[in-house]
Amino acid sequence: MASLTHPHPRPVPEPAKGQPAAPPKKPNGLRGWPLVRKLLTLVFFGLVVWMLSKQAQGIEWAEVGSAMLRIPVGALLAGGAFALASYTLYATFDLIGRYATGHPLSVPQVMLVTAISYAFNLNLGALVGGFAFRFRLYSRLGLENDVITRVLSLSLITNWLGYLFLAGGLFLFQPLALPPDWKIGSEGLQVLGGVLLAAAVAYLLLCGFASKRSWTIRGHEITLPTWRMALLQFALSCANWMLIGGVVYMLLQQRIDYPAVLSVLLIAAVAGVITHVPAGLGVLEAVFVALLSHRLARGELVAGLLAYRAIYYLVPLALAAVAYLAVELKARRRSSA
Fold first, then answer.
1. Is the pTM of this model over 0.90?
2. Tens of pLDDT, residues 269-305
3. What percent of the chain has pLDDT over 90?
4. CB environment 81-94: b (16+ within 10 A), e (fewer)
5. CA 18 to CA 221: how far, in whole Å?
6. Average pLDDT, integer, range 157-166
7. Where are the domains of the chain?
8. What are the residues facing 4 on neighbouring strands?
9. Nearest CA-CA partner of 93 in 287, 216, 232
10. Residues 171/193, Cβ–Cβ less than 8 Å
11. How do residues 2-38 score in pLDDT, each as one tens digit?
């Protein structure tokens, strides 16, 4: 887990004169793993679709509409404040890459690019928002591809480092109380929590105490950040995930305890990533209804989650679209001048 720099291609030795070229070596590793991974993804996607259809059948949509109208203005304002704080905090993630690479863009420029990309990332997926928009905007501002790649890699690590720690800690030490009619217990979630927490701690220890700071893997140099940088990544990411949980908690009007809301949000986040559904559309709602409908009416749950989508996804997307067009127009005027 670290940043990417310039690739170092290995020279291929030429065959001696009169000697036939050696046949290409077969790649090492598990040849069938890509197929297995695709099959597992399809199976997981099928389970999510089944869960979506099952949960949708038990929801009274008229009740959802009336429940949305009953959400207090104070809860909406509190959710909006948490959302604004989360976007502002996430916009600082790329500043770590700015410090690591020393590129010349200003702090406001970096934060604007990060916020725009984040909004598109949430709504359209990582390939479009997290990658395409960052490369497009940073290229417009004059950064080279290798610098953009390193900034992006550090930002991704920052985001998921906090996830590993929070999810690991919650799953292991405060496992979610599953619905009474579920035949499985929380033991599996606790095991997963231990693995996630161990991964987060291992990264921090590696950054702090590893004697070797860089490796070259498949032509890419991977460099560990400093101990202080890793701690900053950890703190920023944990705070951001907790703010996102705060948005949902406020819009559910605090009728479910915060640790449970945050735990389910973290589960839903991974489910959305695995299924590759843009914005996790339907996946988030299905996971919340499946895991918390025994504690709050389905209509109330879905109403709060739809409000969360509007505040944390759609409103920022509209603002990001306007900001992106403004950046593009400014760049075109600069290039034509």
1. no
2. 888 777 666 555 678 888 898 899 889 998 899 999 9
3. 49
4. ebbebbbebbbbbb
5. 36
6. 95
7. 32-336
8. 222
9. 232
10. yes
11. 444 444 444 545 545 444 444 444 445 455 666 665 6
Express each pLDDT in 121-143 by its tens digit.
998 887 777 788 899 999 988 99
**12 to 6, 15, 24, 179, 218: CA distances (angstroms):** 18, 9, 11, 59, 14
Distance, CA of 95 to chain centre: 17
Contacts 24+ apart (CB under 8 A), 235-239: 236/89, 236/92, 236/93, 236/96, 236/158, 236/162, 237/93, 237/158, 237/159, 237/160, 237/161, 237/162, 237/163, 237/165, 238/162, 238/165, 238/166, 239/89, 239/162
Residue 143 to residue 190: CA distance in whole angstroms? 43
Torsion of CA 159, 167, 288, 280, to 10 degrees: 30
Q: HSE (CB half, 13 Å, CA atoms) of 215?
A: 9
The side-by-side arrangement of strands in the sheet containing 214-217 is 3-7, 220-223, 214-217
